[in-house]
Design a protein that fits this description.
By secondary structure, this protein is α/β, with parallel strands linked by helices. It folds into 2 domains: about 200 residues, Rossmann fold, CATH 3.40.50.300; about 100 residues, Orthogonal Bundle (Helicase, Ruva Protein, domain 3), CATH 1.10.8.80. It has 14 helices and 11 strands. It has a 5-stranded parallel β-sheet. Strands 3-4 form a two-stranded antiparallel ribbon. Strands 6-7 form a two-stranded antiparallel ribbon. A hairpin with a 5-residue loop joins strand 3 and strand 4. Helix 1 crosses helix 2, helix 11 crosses helix 12 and helix 12 packs antiparallel against helix 14.
Length: about 325
């Protein structure tokens, strides 16, 4: 019974810490409840997020506020066509000692921070994009044959502008698949615009206090991995993923008609981990089917690759994910 109470206490502490972080972010961010919730889920799940939205919606402010609430180091990288991989990862520079001897020293790039804003990632060349995505995947960078580990926690929020295509390099499908979540940023409503104007045009600004530190955040990420998952939940998540394969006998007609490629195994990994976070945030110590359904859209929308027919008819990945969720039967 003591062990059971200890688990309940850990879950309660997790939820309280997460709510404290969210409340600090709400001091600055107006509305966008789903967005800040899903961004925190990505961070606690140990993943990275791709955020899509038009300019001026507060994407930079969002992650900067999160960094302040967590007392973490923060870097903003503005991606441009002339940005080189070394501008992100760092480079070797020549140094001179007091006695006149020269040597090489590694100058760390902006990727060596806890929270990274990769702003307009689709404006950089594929070579530079790959440098960041490799760092995301491997959690280290290699320069001149030597590896340098990135700090923990390590979280990348990459943004892209959906309305500008000139001078951009869209992320390849294999690179998109490396992102844990894809988050869509909606435009604020009228009341939210009024509150934004009220907060940002006055003489004072809200102060964000530290809600959690690095050791607490790392312990929360560790706890996520320990959340148990029943066999039927695994089965349900697997059915969702397998049903998106166009050649699957269980795939709905529109999936076979509109998809080139279905979801990879990274999709089920992201759903399971995100569902574990959702369970803890709801003060539960086990994952439910509803958790899988809750996380399906942000975890899967960027892993469905539409064919030309779907694009020409205005079919969205969200439409197809919802259709799959409606078609998949819950295991007994």
């Amino acid at each position: 019974m003591t062990e059971y109470n200890q688990v309940l206490n850990q879950v309660s502490q997790f939820r309280d810490a997460a709510n404290t972080i969210l409340n600090e972010m709400r001091k600055v961010i107006v509305g966008q409840e789903t967005l800040i919730h899903d961004m925190l889920v990505t961070l606690l799940g140990g993943g990275n997020a791709l955020m899509e939205g038009v300019p001026g919606l507060g994407k930079t402010l969002l992650i900067r506020t999160l960094a302040q609430a967590l007392d973490c180091s923060f870097s903003r990288i503005q991606f441009t066509p002339d940005l080189m991989p070394a501008d992100i990862t760092g480079t070797m520079i020549i140094t001179e000692a007091p006695d006149g001897r020269r040597g090489f020293r590694f100058e760390r790039g902006p990727v060596f921070a806890n929270l990274i804003l990769a702003d307009e990632i689709n404006r950089a060349t594929p070579r530079t994009q790959s440098a960041l995505l490799e760092a995301m995947q491997e959690q280290h960078v290699t320069v001149a044959g030597e590896s340098y580990h990135l700090p923990k926690p390590f979280f990348v929020l990459a943004t892209q502008n959906p309305i500008e295509l000139e001078g951009t390099f869209p992320l390849p499908e294999a690179q998109l698949d490396r992102f844990f979540y894809k988050l869509d940023v909606p435009s604020p409503m009228e009341d939210e615009l009024v509150e934004i104007a009220r907060r940002t045009t006055g003489s004072s600004s809200p102060v964000v206090e530290v809600a959690a530190d690095v050791p607490l955040l790392l312990s929360m990420q560790t706890l996520v991995r320990q959340v148990p998952v029943e066999e039927r939940v695994y089965r349900y998540a697997a059915r969702v993923v397998s049903t998106t394969q166009p050649d699957s006998p269980d795939a709905p007609a529109r999936i076979r008609q509109y998809l080139r490629v279905g979801i990879s195994p990274r999709g089920i990994q992201a759903m399971i981990i995100a569902a574990k976070v959702e369970a803890l945030l709801d003060n539960r110590k086990a994952v439910a089917i509803d958790d899988i359904r809750r996380v399906a859209l942000p975890a899967l929308r960027h892993r469905l690759f539409l064919n030309f027919e779907a694009l020409s008819e205005g079919i969205s990945p969200d439409d197809l994910v919802n259709e799959v969720l409606d078609a998949v039967q819950v295991p007994r």
